[in-house]
Amino acid sequence: MSLPRSSSLPVKVLQFGEGNFLRAFVDWMVEKMNEKGLFQGSVQIVKPRAGGNPGVCQALNAQGGRYHVVERGMVNGAPWERPALIQCVRGAYLPDQDQEKIQEVALSPHLELIVSNVTEAGLVYRPGDTQSYPARLAHLLSLRAKAGLPGVILLPCELLENNGTLLKEYVLRHLQDAQAAQEILSYVERECLFCNTLVDRIVSGFPTGEEEYFQKLLGEKDDCLVCCEPFFFLAVETDQPERLRKAFPAEAAGLNMVVSSDISAYRTRKVRMLNGAHTASVLGAIMDGLTTVDEMMRSPQYLPFLKTLLFQEIAPVLPLPEEEKETYGKAVLERFSNPYAHHRLLSIALNSISKWKARVLPSLREYQEKYHALPEAMTQSLVYLLKYYQEGRGNDLPEILEYFRSAPALPHILANSSLWGEDLTQIPHLEEAIRARM
Question: Using an 8 Å Cβ cutoff, are 341 and 294 in contact?
Answer without folding.
Answer: yes
